[in-house]
Amino acid sequence: MGFFYSQFFIKPEYATQSFTGQTVIITGANVGLGLEAARHIVRLQAAQVILAVRNPATGEAAKRSIEQSTGRPGVFQVWHFDLASFDSVQSFAERVARLPRVDCVVANAAIATPTFKVVEGHEQTITVNVISTMLLALLLLPKLRETAEQHPDESMPRLTVVLSKIKNTADMENRYATSKLMEILLLREMAGRMSGSGVIINMVNPGLCHSKLAREIGWGFWMFKQLVARSTEVGSRTLVAWASAGRNSHGMYMTDGRIANEALSTFVRSLEGEQAQEKLWPEIAGILEDIHPGIMQKEVDNPLAKGSHNGLPSDNALNSKLEKDRFPRQATVDEYAQTFNQGFYAPAPLDRAGHDVVLITGGTGSLGLHLMAHIASLANTQTVICLNRSSGINPDLHRSKPSNGLICRAQFDIYINPVLL
């Protein structure tokens, strides 16, 4: 019901945010949402807009259309870009690196097709929607960070990835839905690793629109789309809103022009979703390393990149450090959590008295979850306040019995998004 209410009764606001002086890159900008988003961004005084398209001829046609409607010639460049080719993605990124600045990247290009085809060694939907999109994001991060460093008093650079709720409204080929699920998990992990980098990474769902994304899907879905879809202009407003959003949008999912992490699927917000995220990241990272050796060390230039989850060290990173210094075997998360209040290198039981109220940041990952369980087990602890990036976490996650047998006595019922404080 929420989907239909959104489609029929919620209309995202007309875009008014300024892009004055900014350089913006939009992939898949020759038609549909990308085209209309580019039209808005030029209207909002962007200094330079790069249309990244697979077919330069259609890109030039899009350029002429926008110039005519906005009366702003000379703003556009049309660059060839094909997510079905890893070489094309890398060549595109090399060209971007030579630009004076890049303020915003809107990763809009994607495919939804019922046809099975192997491209670059993987099924084409996974290649285009997941692997190449992540490859592009990682390769463009250095330029975005450079822009942030050179222009510290201006808006933070943004990387906005366009997702979709199409999987919730039509029984399409599962590959598209799977690719978008993978994309959400990977971007959430990436945003956690890049916190503090000076670059905003966010995700946007424009709703079901009259774009050409599903042009290969059958007549049944075509009829459904005619009845409920938004115009591409209305849908593109959400892209523009998130492409100009501030730091409070980092790692967030937007739909209907607002932060709506609770609109993500139950699986994505569950412990199983987090575990899938932790498994998926190294698998995709390995593929990206094969494509572009050194990309994970070079492009995710953050100490947390060597093992992290939502801004916290991962089990593997902790195990390596603890095993080397104190433990003859790999330490468990429980063992590390027990040492937390005693200092990183002091593996003593956590036997201090509890406190009335305890605040923990990053309590949704495996370490934070176990740490909360230990603190909650202390006699005097009444309430644990978990400060999360996401407001859509299910409180039931933190009522489970930890593996060492301690029973959580605290109330895990207060969730605050720190960027809103």
TrEMBL record:
One Pfam family here: adh_short
Record keyword Oxidoreductase present: yes
Record-linked Gene3D superfamilies: NAD(P)-binding Rossmann-like Domain
InterPro entries: NAD(P)-bd_dom_sf (IPR036291), SDR_fam (IPR002347)
Top-rank lineage group of the source organism: Eukaryota
Gene Ontology molecular function: any one: oxidoreductase activity
Keywords: Oxidoreductase
PANTHER family according to UniProt: DEHYDROGENASE_REDUCTASE FAMILY PROTEIN, PUTATIVE (AFU_ORTHOLOGUE AFUA_3G02580)-RELATED, PHOSPHATIDYLINOSITOL-GLYCAN BIOSYNTHESIS CLASS F PROTEIN-RELATED
Full protein name: Ketoreductase (KR) domain-containing protein
Record organism: Aspergillus cristatus
